[in-house]
Amino acid sequence: METLATFHITHLPTELAVYIALFRGLRNASFLRQQLLDGNTEYEYAFLDAASILSTTHVLAAVFRAVNDMQSQRMKSRNVHSETVFALSPNNNIAESFRRFGLTEITTDLLVVKLSTFTDITFQSMSRHLKRVIEGVPVQFNDAELQQITDTAKLRKAYKLAPPKQNTPLGGANGGAALRSPEDGEVERRELEALILGLMALRGAT
Questions:
Q1: What is the rounded CA–CA span in Å between residue 206 and residue 196?
Q2: Is the separation of the CB atoms in 103 and 29 below 8 Å?
Q3: CA-wise closest residue to 205 among 102, 95, 82, 74
Q4: How far is the CA of 21 from the CAs of 100, 146, 165, 172, 204, in angstroms?
Q5: What is the pLDDT of residues 146-193, one digit of tens each?
Q6: Could you tell me the CA-to-CA distances from 2 to 22, 57, 113, 127, 204 in Å, in that order?
Q7: What does the alpha-carbon distance between residue 90 and residue 200 come to, in Å, rounded to a whole number?
Q8: Phi and psi angles of residue 145, each rounded to the nearest 5 degrees, phi first
Q9: Crossing angle, helix 94-101 and helix 80-87, to 10 degrees?
Q10: pLDDT, tens digit, 9 for 90 and up, residues 34-67
Q11: CB-neighbour burial class of residue 194 (10 A; exposed 0-12, middle 13-18, buried 19+)
Q12: pLDDT one-digit tens code per residue, 108-136
């Protein structure tokens, strides 16, 4: 599967990797969620609702935190994949983190994360399994694709962040619609990303 992305995390041996895939138009969300609820080890992934992911950095920060907590024996959930979902949360409520960031029955855009904790988990084995079990259209895992999917209002609510300030309309401070350029949107996303990463890092620190 050409769209499957491979990453290497500093804390892991070089022969182990993190695999991430993004799917749009998901058609079997209910089935996948049931596999998680049943504890089916064949489906041991971090299944994320891509609408709740702002950027590649956002999800990779969660993976890094989960791996670090696994190696430090500080995990609060049952495995490194559920810990990845929890790592996205700004608070210590595990159930809430799954409701806000995890796969739900109405998820239509799915982000799949797999940490190869064993050497028999390879790019080839991952590709075969995802092709077989995910009913959706694979797309590239990058910021451009995520930008089309992310629900920023939902994200701001999850992290308890205020809406962005609107630009001053053309012709004065009263009346008219705020003017926004592509550059404004990118600045807003980068500012939002910095706030979110800070809240993720602070969870459990106090």
A1: 17
A2: yes
A3: 74
A4: 19, 12, 33, 46, 29
A5: 999 999 999 999 999 998 776 544 333 444 445 556 677 788 899 999
A6: 11, 21, 16, 8, 37
A7: 5
A8: -70, -45
A9: 80
A10: 999 999 999 999 999 999 999 999 999 999 999 9
A11: exposed
A12: 999 999 998 777 899 999 999 999 999 99
Per the DSSP assignment, residues forming a β-bridge with 23 are 110, 138
Tokens 């809406």 — which residue?
163
Using H for helix, E for strand and C for coil, what is the string for the chain? CCCCEEECCCCCCCCCCEEEEEEECCCCHHHHHHHHHCCCHHHCCEEEEHHHCCCHHHHHHHHHHHHHHHHCCCCCCCCHHHHHHHHCCCCCCHHHHHHHHECCCCCCCEEEEEECCCCCCCHHHHHHHHHHHCCCEEECCCHHHHHHHCCHHHHHHHCCCCCCCCCCCCCCCCCCCCCCCHHHHHHHHHHHHHHHHHHHHHCCCC
Structure-block tokens of residue 109: 């855009």
Is there a contact between 119 and 15 (Cβ–Cβ < 8 Å)? yes
Q: Which two tokens stand for residue 126?
A: 């991952």
Phi/psi at 59 (nearest 5 deg)?
Answer: -75, -35
C-alpha to C-alpha distance for 83 and 202, rounded to whole angstroms: 16
Looking at this protein, which amino acid is placed at residue 178?
Answer: A
